[in-house]
Amino acid sequence: FFFFFSRMTPAAILFVLAAVGASPAWPRFSWDTVPVFYHSCNFSGGFSDDALKIITKFPMVTIEKGQGVNIASEPAEVKIIAALKQVKEIDANISTIFYYNSVLDWEMYEMHQKMLAHPDYWLRENGKVVRLHGDGSFPQPKDGMLVFDFAKAEVRDFWMSECVNATKSGFVDGCFSDRSDSSPPGASEAYAKGHLQVHQELQKALGNGVLVANHGYTMPGVNAAMVERFGATAEAMDLLNQTVQAGKIAQAHAGYLQDGGDQQCKNITNSLAAFLIVAGERSYYTCSKGWDVEKDPVEQAWHDEYDKPLGAPLGAAYLVGSVWHRHFTHGTNVTFDTATNKGTIIWGKAAALV
Predict the structure, then answer these.
(1) How far is CA 103 from CA 85, 150, 179, 253, 284, in A?
(2) In this structure, are residues 189 and 195 in contact, taking their beta carbons and an 8 Å threshold?
(3) If we measure between CA atoms, which residue out of 162, 173, 271 comes closest to residue 227?
(4) pLDDT tens for each residue of 282-296
């Protein structure tokens, strides 16, 4: 990370060196209002002051791989950390999360250059190099990307070092691992075992730092998971419940047209009601169509519902016919009908916390 430090002022470097010894910021949690998180990136580079005023309202912030991707001068690691630095300088208590992929070798990262220098790190099937495609919203080669061969200990160490080094910047509290449950076609049992092992070993290296395993609802030895396709469905609620029951920090991401007619976050009532029926301690909600501010402008990230009074749940949800009910201490009452995938939220009258 010399490249990152070389572009900082002496005062900023001193700030980092002091922060490196600090414990990672565990995401704040409160039932007073809806617990929420932010996950996105800006293809054009850093965030404006107005954007940061909104982003820093969220207690947990993840910056995606596409941060500054339209600016070719620096690798993704530098740009992601620079964005998280912007967040930390406003509120050091926000839990900041560095995004990377546990299957795909996205070429905007500096680690791709290291992969190119080590062909023995590449996953192969019957002697042929495996290449896979990812989210088409982000630039990638036509023939697909290289895949990390986690059957090999040196590859596991290499992949883990990316996250650990990011936390040494002083601006990163943890990491988001995409495709944490995915095995490429034809992958061996040794690969699958190594894929789980590398997450467990990384969590040990991070200690209390957050490791969000996308789709890793019940992954043992990892402290957080995202339900990426959360929505107003019984199936999505079950996945969130599995994550909660596993004792994990749970991120519920809505907005993929599975929201009971909420129209990709134009109205979040149905998906939010589904979330509140299931949410446990350390569960967080967000809604976005995608993972960049071009699709989801920052100005639209904070919904009015996030300022409404909620309160701790008075108990677990209960089912009457096809309708789930749950009540909260600030007088908020929530229902969700699994027959229609529609929810209602009657907010309490306690003063909103803004």
Answers:
(1) 26, 9, 6, 21, 25
(2) no
(3) 271
(4) 999 999 999 999 989
Number of Cβ within a 10 Å radius of residue 144: 15
pLDDT tens readout for residues 268-324:
999 999 999 999 999 999 999 999 999 899 999 999 999 999 999 999 999 999 999
Burial class (CB in 10 A: 0-12, 13-18, 19+), 110: middle
User: How many CA atoms within 13 Å lie on the side-chain side of 289?
Assistant: 14
Closest listed residue to residue 36, CA positions, set 288, 243, 257, 244: 288
- Beta carbons within 8 Å of 243's beta carbon, 6+ residues apart: 217, 218, 225, 227, 250, 283
Can you give the pTM of this predicted structure? 0.91
Which strand ranges, in their side-by-side order, compose the sheet holding 323-327?
A: 318-320, 323-327, 333-337, 342-346
pLDDT in tens, 78-137: 999 999 999 999 999 999 999 999 999 999 999 999 999 999 999 999 999 999 999 988
Angle at 95 (CA atoms; ends 31, 247), nearest 5 degrees: 55
Which amino acid makes up residue 250? A
| Contact indicator for 176, 212 with CB cutoff of 8 Å | yes
Please, are residues 179 and 31 in contact by the beta-carbon 8 Å criterion? no
H-type alpha helices, the chain: 2-5, 10-20, 49-55, 76-90, 110-116, 153-167, 189-206, 234-245, 269-278
State residue 232 phi and psi, 5-degree precision: -85, 65
Q: Residue with structure tokens 């982003």?
A: 55
User: If you ran DSSP here, which 8-state letter would residue 128 be given?
Assistant: E
55-70 burial, b if ≥16 CB within 10 A, otherwise e? bbbbbbbbbbbbbbbe
Tokens of 322: 């096809």
* Buried-exposed string 207-225: b where 16+ CB fall within 10 A, e elsewhere: eebbbbbbbbbebeebbbb
Helix (H, G, I), strand (E, B) or coil at 17: helix
Say whether pLDDT at 15 is over 60. Answer: no
